[in-house]
Amino acid sequence: MKKCLSNFDLKFIAIITMTIDHIGVVFGTPFYNLLRAVGRLSFPIFAFLLTEGYVHTKSFSKYFFRLLVLALFSEVIYDYVFFDSFIYIDANNIFFTLALGLLTLFLLDKSKGLIKRYFKDKVDLVIILPITYLLIIVIMGLMGEFLNFSYGMLGILVISFFYLFKDSFPLVVISVTLSTLILGEGMQYFSLFSLILIYFYNKKLGKKCKLFFYLYYPLHILVLGFIKMLMG
After folding, report:
1. Tens digit of pLDDT for each residue in 66-104?
2. pLDDT over 90 percentage in the chain
3. If DSSP codes are grouped into helix, strand and coil, which group holds residue 3?
4. From CA 175, how far away is CA 210, in angstroms rounded?
5. Is residue 13 pLDDT above 80, yes or no?
6. Angle at 15 between CA 156 and CA 105, to 5 degrees
7. Are 45 and 198 spatial neighbours (Cβ–Cβ below 8 Å)?
8. DSSP 207
9. CB contact at 8 A, 190 and 45
10. Hey, where are the domains in the chain?
11. DSSP alpha helices (H): ranges in the chain?
12. Is the pLDDT of residue 2 over 90?
């Protein structure tokens, strides 16, 4: 079956489904549950694209810095539109999760290099490497929970599994599905349909609109908030 979705296509699908989700949250329409269900598709796609970005980035520090700056810039808008407060510490926007996820991938990568350097025995590698990975993922996931980042532990697990099993899509499906079923709630189960879209990724970049995708997040929330204000 032909794989026909580029990086651009997946990003576009992710921001559209995210926008649909946010429309449901902001306006609470009669179609609230349907809009939220569609919106669940967005995060796994963003998580997958994050791992693709990490693998191909020329500078981890610049990539991380962009995500962190966008998270900080968007937070006031996010808090005000969704929680009617300029500072709301019980929830933080998705770009904090993506930044933390990117840092997790960096730590996984570096730990693998260090372990392979100091532990030459294959038996040691089989034991020590998975334990190290587990510790990193759990610590970063707990940090996400403690800081009230969107998706918390589940978010870090999904990002990590996309990276660790990037060469085996069946393992991605199994690990992401189990994580979602165990840690997610009923509505989150709809996110698993995103794996079908990700399967059709053709590993091509597609159109280049990096600035648009970065700016879209805070701007679309701002627009929704403005419309909500006009509607009273």
Report:
1. 999 999 999 999 999 999 998 999 999 999 999 999 999
2. 82
3. coil
4. 29
5. yes
6. 25
7. yes
8. S
9. no
10. 7-231
11. 7-27, 32-39, 42-56, 60-83, 94-118, 122-146, 152-164, 169-183, 194-199, 210-231
12. no
